[in-house]
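2.7 Reproducibility. Because tokenized structures are sensitive to small changes in the input, we list the exact sequence used for Diaminopimelate decarboxylase, including any N-terminal residues retained from the expression construct. No trimming or masking was applied before prediction.
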Amino acid sequence: MKPTELLQLADQFGCPLYVYDAAKIEAQYKRLTDAFSKVEDLRINYAVKALSNVTILKLFKKLGSGLDTVSIQEVQLGLHAGFSPDKIIYTPNGVSFEEIEMAAELGVQINIDNLSVLEHFGAKHPKVPVCIRINPHVMAGGNSNISVGHIDSKFGISIHQMPHILRIVENTGMHINGIHMHTGSDILDIEVFLYAAEILFEAASHFKELDFLDFGSGFKVPYKKDDIETNVEEFGKKLSKRFNEFKKEYGRPLALAFEPGKFLVSEAGHFLAKVNVVKQTTSTVFAGIDSGFNHLIRPMFYGSQHQIENISNPKGKERFYTVVGYICETDTFASNRRIAEIHEGDVLCFKNAGAYCFSMSSNYNSRFKPAEVLWHEGKGILIRERETLADILKNQIAIDL
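Resulting structure tokens (single pass, no recycling of outputs):
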């Protein structure tokens, strides 16, 4: 999107504001499907947790995507957005057994990552098809918080516990229709991913009636100019070849599934915030904006970098700024970052704000969550209203004591 278009939206809808470019989402989806065009049955299940606005889900439905969900609420959102149950996979971790049964009653694909839950579910619901999430014990991901396939991870059933899995399946007579893994996010080395794939193939060979193999996701996107990213085209070529070979060895039709979130929506997102103050101290120039980690927590939580542009003065002389928020504690988006000269009232644009940004926002300091806008076919469409005090008070009960 052009800076002028973003400024127009900031003026129309106010700041802070999340803006998503529909054309970029569509382009990323096509890029992934093209990379695996040699696979006869490819399933892309968008990871709802990345950005769960219902209009975004409807966009993915239009593109032909399924959904990857991690909570019963995400399942319900998917159904509300018009997805049929068979297009939704539910992969929880540490939830109650009752929640898993609720998802099963709704008819979605169940994915289980715990031996005790697998045994309990198989004993009670042996006729319900189940996918098993394995832990391949492969360390991959750009941050320890998003590396989920290593040996100390809480996710998945250890590949070394395959005898226990097979014992449970045999004893309960349950139907296993899929095998799943997810090693982590921001994966660059596709050879690591291909190595993990071989572990998944080996696990799949123990089950004779599988319908699909689910490779999770974790593709890295570029966060700044000239940043490195996962080469999905090369990965698609290599994994497609190996998957098609395995499918022949397996002897029955198999679908290849992925669950991308960040890859599909991250680069489509822009977060717009207005500069409240420019504050010079003895060693730092702070640019204080009308937002904080209540709206965009990733820099504080993960140490993530979001490119920041002054779209009010894009051609201004660059100076060093530390961009901070208005939360009443340390609240830093970027330290000593080169940005075109900033004045109070300017609008700053945070790039790569589509994934895990609004979805991780909060009402900390009793601040309102921002509005969301979809840029579609040259115009901005409001897809979430800015919160008001009524929203903050909605579920509170005021009692005179």
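The radius of gyration is 23 Å.
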